[in-house]
Design goal:
The structure is a single chain. The N and C termini lie far apart (about 75 Å). By secondary structure, the chain is α+β, with helices and mostly antiparallel strands. The protein has 1 helix and 8 strands. A two-stranded antiparallel sheet has the order 1-2. The chain has a domain of about 60 residues.
Length: about 160
């Protein structure tokens, strides 16, 4: 192969690298003419999370954090409507139907919430910050379901 043929491949390799970089930037929400939604729910999207499958016959009763079966997607979610977010263990009073998550916009929406009185701005979820935010027999602990550094009230460990 001549050195001239090798020289022609370099522009293609450079172009491929530039296209890959542009695709990565676009996938991350940058440089497409629109600002990324800095306030977007930081919890994993339903297609990214390991959601429990369900059906009309086999619902989500065993899933305390995702007790509602979304029959269209056949997965357990936290909500399908705002009414589903009225249960004591929800992460906020409003339902994002696209994601199936209950959420909050501010601390005022989390007053009396079983998970805590503080709205975590990144996760848009009612959380606790300290043990004193929880009932006397509960502790404020990391909630692995959310995939973030979000804490919720859990029964205190037996000593």
């Amino acid at each position: 192969m001549s050195s001239r043929a090798v020289g022609r491949r370099r522009p293609c390799a450079v172009a491929a690298a530039l296209l890959a970089a542009a695709a990565a930037i676009h996938a991350c929400g940058g440089d497409d003419g629109e600002a990324a939604d800095a306030g977007a729910d930081a919890r994993p999207a339903p297609e990214d999370a390991a959601l429990v499958e369900c059906s009309a016959d086999d619902g989500c009763a065993a899933e305390p954090l995702t007790p509602v079966c979304d029959l269209a997607r056949t997965v357990c979610v936290e909500c399908l409507s705002a009414g589903d977010c009225q249960r004591s263990g929800s992460f906020g009073p409003s339902c994002d139907q696209a994601s199936g998550y209950c959420g909050c916009e501010g601390d005022d929406e989390c007053a009396g919430n079983a998970n805590g009185p503080t709205c975590n701005a990144d996760a848009r979820a009612c959380t606790c910050l300290l043990d004193t935010d929880c009932a006397d027999d509960e502790e404020c602990e990391l909630e692995p379901y959310l995939g973030l550094d979000v804490r919720t009230c859990h029964p205190a460990a037996a000593q």
